Amino acid sequence: MKPEYLSSSKPPREIGVVKVIAIGFIGGLVASGVKSLCEWIAPPRAPGVQSPLGNALDAMAMGVTGEAMPEGAKSIAEPALHFLFGAGAGVVYALIERRLPLIRAGYGTLFGFVFWLLLHEIALPLMGFSPTPAQMTLWEQGNELVTHVIFGVAIEFTRRALVRKWA
Known about the structure:
Elements: H1 17-41, H2 52-65, H3 71-99, H4 109-127, H5 138-166
Helix pairs in contact: 1-3, 1-5, 2-3, 4-5
């Protein structure tokens, strides 16, 4: 038997857009924490290989100062930007799922897969922040795929919990 909040016989109360944005923001923060924990347990890159986000921060710093970002600043900026980007992705997810419930397929798995595909397989290599898929190791691609799927599931888990609480 489905829980009441998932039942099709009793539609949930409509949640306002401000709450949807807050739910997505919180979901993205939680999912970023989960993804970071996964990557701490099983790093996607060899030691000493900079992340695509680290490459992006260096590129931004080069554009402003002419030099790469100092490691001390990068050690603060990289996780902060990672969590903000994740929170933004959570907001996008929460807004999209209202109009396109299919994105919730597999308890957020579809979103995680699409997010990985667009970001790590297409956008980051095109921007020069990561190697092309053909240049990446199978471990790096697989790790990023799995952690992005987990990211999508964590957003959906958090979204459902908060919708149930706030609806």
